[in-house]
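Propose amino acids for all 274 sites.
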């Protein structure tokens, strides 16, 4: 039976380090499965060589965030940036195919001045339809992630219900929701109810605590209850750790290992970094 496994975002765990150095730190910490926000500063060939030398696998990458200097955080729902989204998605597919990365987060981006919500939603739908067509016949899975409207007040996609409606309209099992528990708690709360409601559409989870976006167990979220709710839906994929550390990573890994072991049926056990 598949095991719930931890993956680790090197982009937040080691956010001030160059990517290759961050991957080296991940390997040193025995974090065998990693997530990367933006791998594009390093060539595909160098990244492949680094991953092979370190024995790491990448689970997830984002599409390019766009022009950070102007505040962009993705371009999928930006009617004036369709060409950028398509170029960035093609680049993501190149990396994912070469590096055997199974999931791509298609970043929606911000609300655009002068564009209606309906126009941006239609743009996002058409871009996602194109992306699904481009990746037809591949094992790639696309993910949409709602972000909380406190940290990201201008972001287009801020509710699980919005993401669920888009996924449902696309009628394709190769697209799902990335449910970030930090964003969900900070923006909405009602974690157990939302996990249960949207479970059939959730393709990946990410964890951090509130406040501060630090490791689980340092804030107000009861992660034992969260993991029990997730396991109760039948989910058996990865739990992504996307937080800014204040404690040794090994401490967090061991704590989550105990929580997962307590939540899972007796025949299953967690696969975590040792």
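Proposal:
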């Amino acid at each position: 039976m598949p095991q719930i496994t931890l993956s680790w975002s090197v982009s937040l765990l080691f956010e001030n380090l160059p990517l290759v150095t961050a991957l080296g730190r991940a390997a040193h910490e025995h974090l065998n499965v990693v997530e990367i926000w933006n791998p594009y500063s390093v060539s595909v060939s160098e990244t492949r060589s680094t991953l092979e030398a370190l024995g790491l696998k990448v689970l997830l990458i984002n599409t390019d965030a766009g022009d950070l200097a102007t505040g962009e955080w993705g371009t999928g729902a930006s009617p004036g940036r369709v060409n950028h989204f398509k170029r960035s998605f093609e680049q993501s597919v190149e990396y994912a195919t070469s590096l055997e990365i199974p999931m791509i987060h298609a970043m929606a981006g911000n609300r655009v001045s002068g564009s209606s919500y309906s126009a941006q939603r239609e743009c996002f739908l058409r871009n996602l339809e194109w992306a699904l067509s481009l990746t037809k016949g591949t094992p790639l899975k696309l993910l949409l992630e709602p972000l909380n409207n406190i940290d990201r007040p201008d972001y287009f996609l801020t509710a699980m219900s919005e993401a669920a409606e888009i996924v449902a309209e696309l009628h394709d099992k190769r697209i799902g929701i990335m449910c970030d528990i930090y964003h969900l708690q900070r923006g909405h709360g009602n974690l157990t109810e939302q996990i249960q409601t949207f479970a059939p559409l959730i393709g990946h989870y990410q964890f951090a605590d509130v406040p501060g976006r630090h490791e689980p167990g340092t804030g107000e979220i009861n992660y034992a209850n969260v993991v029990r709710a997730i396991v109760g839906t039948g989910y058996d994929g990865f739990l992504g750790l996307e937080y800014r550390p204040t404690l040794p990573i090994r401490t967090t890994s061991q704590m989550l290992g105990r929580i997962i072991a307590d939540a899972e049926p007796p025949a299953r056990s967690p696969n975590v970094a040792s």
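The chain has one domain: 5-263. DSSP finds ten helices and eight strands in the chain.
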